[in-house]
Amino acid sequence: MEAAPILQVRDLSVTLDSEAGPVLAVRSVSYSVRPGEVFGIVGESGSGKSVSSLAVMSLLPSHARIRGSVLFRGQELLGQSDRALSRIRGRRIAMVFQDPLSALTPVYSVGDQIAEAILVHESMSREAATERAVELLALVGIPSPRHRATAFPHEFSGGMRQRAMIAMAIANRPDLIIADEPTTALDVTIQAQILQVLRTAQEVTGAAIILITHDMGIIAGMADRVGVMYAGKLVETGSVDDVFYRARMPYTLGLLGSIPRLDRGTHQALTPIEGTPPSLVDLPPGCPFESRCPLRIPSCREVEPPLLEMAASGPGHLAACHRSAEVERRDLKSADVFPAPPPHASDRDGAPRAELDQVLEVQDLVKHFPLVKGAILRRRVGTVHAVDGISFDIRRGETLGLVGESGCGKTTAIMEILNLLAPTSGRIVVFGRDTANITHRERFETRRDLQVVFQDPMASLDPRLPVHDILAEPLEAHGVPAVEHSARVRELLRLVGLEPQHASRYPQALSGGQRQRVGIARALALEPRLLVLDEPVSSLDVSIRAGVINLLEQLKKELGLSYLFVAHDLSVVRHIADRVAVMYLGRFVEIGAVDDVFDRPAHPYTQALLSAIPLPDPVKERTRTRIVLEGDLPDPSDPPTGCRFRTRCQKFSGELADAARRRCIEEQPALAARTGGPDHLDACHYAVTASVL
Amino acid sequence: MTAEPDVTSRGQLVLRRFLRRRLAMLGFTIVLVLFAIAYLSPLFVAWQYDELDASAFLSPPTGEHWFGTTQNGFDMFALTMRGMQKSLVVGLVGAVLSTALAAIAGAFAGYFGRILNAAISAVMDLLLVLPGFLIVAILSPLFQGRTWLFFVLLLAAFQWMITARIVRGMTLSLKEREFVQAARFMGVPGWKIIFRHILPNMASLLIIDATVNVSSLILAEVGLSFFGFGIQPPDVSLGTLIGNYSNAALTFWWQFYLPAGFLVLLVLAVNLVGDGLRDAFDPNAPSRVT
After folding, report:
1. Angle B94-112/B114-129 helices, nearest 10 degrees?
2. Which of A337, A455, A463, B186 is most exposed by smallest CB count within 10 Å?
3. Is A687 within the bounds of a domain?
């Protein structure tokens, strides 16, 4: 006999008002959560996953019209007064938000805020509450909690703030925790820490968790059951294994097939989902996924499919597709449903790397920023070691992936290259020209061959210029006659898979994926030889990401480009790069061919980074051993002596004897081939390869 | 090739969006009509602005004198039209000049920084501190006898500083944006980036500034004329008419309300054009308005 559900949502619908008209943000969503279970909700931005959970808490703005029923332990929550709900919110149902900085009050200390959360619901003395707050901070892994309880939110790092939020959420031993994208704003190693804290929190309190995320990997590792949302509706729900291994709704299949996998490498074919989600303002009748679905039949346009039980799966596996029975019978997988381009093979034609032309060479690049104080008499009080001696080269037709967490200096490094000026020290050689001694004219000419695609296409495209002018800008700057602009713009649009009529639109009128395609087209306008890609897909939704990655691969092959691909997402790097360099605190810790580094990582940081990335595969994800790093990135203005990673190194703190540690403290390890091939370099005195995938 | 019309660049798009706005077109038409009657009506009417009608002092509007007459027997309609000739030029040309000066000085100071910034900022601060009236007074002997258009230049020269400071501040933040960096990495020169990316992104501010300047310049001209600079009797401007006859508003109302009405009409029309231009530049504004 199964336990009664703790939360039962029935036919929940939410309509929000917007300038364009009423937005059907959530459309008759039903699910239930049992005690102690983790229910994951996945979906892309705008799918209604956050709105539906805010509706459960009645936290939506007053103009939202909510219909349906939300039963929490048999008690109806919708329509209750704010006062009645306040007795439930925070005590019985707690919430963890995405952005912990705005969720904490800046003017109270963290300990006081947690104590406050306890005192609102329980009658105890302030001293006892403060004591309990310290215990909670210790539970979520804040070092020296008694001391840190008196600190203010801005003195905490992002990861520590999120820990404090979790401490606050479990302060009153709630029955249900709603975690809305709890790790989206965080780096992967911190994300691994927070997910572990969430697991601990759940063990301690026995609470059920609703985990809202767009990351299928997190769901695979954390959730017991999943609901997939699309256009405000639940389109598939079931146990994690059913949804991941026996997905029956084409959207779920597409979503799973579009994720580059860390454990698959370059041979995986990514299945992009064409098109964009429909507008929720005037939704056409029929299935909202119809326009993007390769399996569509005429009736999809007319009747919206209901959620139907899948006979061959476990109980409670429901999918909303007219053809789900057929998908089940034939057991279709992502690649069967969605047309995928053949996986790209490395197009170096087997020529040895050393024989190819060098397009970019960076030697001992150093960039320091002075820290100054005072307005008139500016004193130098320190130095930020943003980039501290990195060397690499890129050959023709090659993709180098540059990975690292935020603050490691990767953006500074590419800005130094793009500026084409002499660096603080070291050398940058672009197409055989040393940037330290090139003329103004040569620098201008080099810009033709070296172009950049930025992370956020919304920010990198001028909102006041139509697409035509955006694409014509580089042409005009480099003296292409004006009469040729229109033809070239059309050609570029076709090259990146857009239509000629997009030329007269403004960037706002395009979807995220289309905008990034415009960004890529602009970079390609002058037929460059080297593209610097600064996190080109990380601001895009998962289903669109695959299309852009495939486009980049195809362009590289067709146009013979070389890429410097900067990313924090290692799965994407694994998919697209030939070689990869891992950066930590301004220095490379490991560099080599992508398969070497991912399959046989030698540096402890690379190992931890790889192990922190969740795999969208429930069985693998749950059986992996995980290396979770301690603490946060050290302050780059005061890096540790010797090896920069030693303060967080699992090897340093766990395996090494005191005598061996001395070397890590005193001597900075150089990049050298320690573990195998001559091309696989690492910077660890005690490097041993390990497989962590 | 597709057969669609090749209307794709920004200039064409903005023009098309502007022409589609009815209120803006109405404002634009009003301004044109005002120009036309101000300059053409003296050719057709019986009385000129400097002619006295000894038979009609302080006459209310009649068939002979449409807008009535003044105490000295001047025809009010002729005066108003003569005044509007001056005020239209002072207001429109002065406003465009001062906003353009503000935009260019502020954007160049903000974008290029260093010495240029220091120099332009020093000029801005100096002009803000020095009373503009005093400088106009000192300089006016130089312009004595020359065309009163110099006066428009002078008025504009004391109107731009505050806007220029705002523009400079906005430029400082805009130049860190990625699309400006992207243009830089393409090799686009700085002055082009300013005119293509930076100024259009503050078009709303500049247009509002220019429309506000129209009325404030027309009125600023009154103050200077009062002290004997600028437009001198027997010549008139809308500003001097309104200034001279404001005390007649409650008694011989036509002397005040009719010129004032034309000023209000002009400012309203300019505002409509400004709103239309702003929306035409702003891609987020709805592209069709009824």
Report:
1. 140
2. A463
3. no
* Angle (nearest 5°) at CA A519 between A517 and A525: 100
Residue type, A103: A
Segment (H or E) for A591: strand A587-593
All residues of chain A having their beta carbon less than 8 Å from the beta carbon of residue B3 are none
Q: How many CB atoms lie within 10 A of CB B95?
A: 26
User: What is the per-residue pLDDT for B1?
Assistant: 38
Specify the number of domains making up chain A.
4
The reply to whether A2 falls in a domain is: no
Residues of the domain holding A53: 7-223
| Among candidate residues A566, A584, A602, the one where a domain is terminated | A584
**Residues A320, A305: Cα–Cα separation, whole Å:** 5
Residue B154's closest CA among B128, B138, B136?
B136
> pLDDT tens across B12-45, in order?
888 888 888 889 999 999 999 988 988 888 887 7
**For residue A91, is it within any domain?**
yes
Q: How many residues does chain B have?
A: 290
CATH number of the domain encompassing residue A13: 3.40.50.300
Residues of chain B with C-beta less than 8 angstroms from the C-beta of A447: 185-187
Could you say which DSSP state residue A23 is in? E
Pairwise CB contact (< 8 Å): A465 & B192: no
- Among residues A540, A562, A584, the one where a domain terminates is A584
Are A439 and A414 within one domain? yes
Query: What distance in Å separates the CA atoms of residue A64 and residue B259, rounded to the nearest whole number?
Result: 52
Domains of chain B: 33-40+68-281 (1.10.3720.10)
- Indicate whether A487 belongs to any domain: yes
Residue A346, pLDDT > 60, answer: no
Q: Is A210 helix (H, G, I), strand (E, B) or coil?
A: strand
| Token duo for residue A148 | 């840190």
**pLDDT value at position B2?**
40
DSSP, collapsed to helix, strand or coil, labels residue B49 as coil
Residues A481 and A620 in one domain: no
Q: Which among A464, A504, A507 is the nearest to B200, CB-wise?
A: A464
pLDDT-derived band at B220 (thresholds 50, 70, 90) equals: confident
Cβ distance B197 to A465 less than 8 Å, yes or no, reads: yes
Q: Are strands A21-33 and A208-213 parallel, antiparallel or unpaired?
A: unpaired
Distance from C-alpha of A221 to C-alpha of A616, rounded to nearest angstrom: 8
Q: Hey, what are A105's tokens?
A: 């009050």
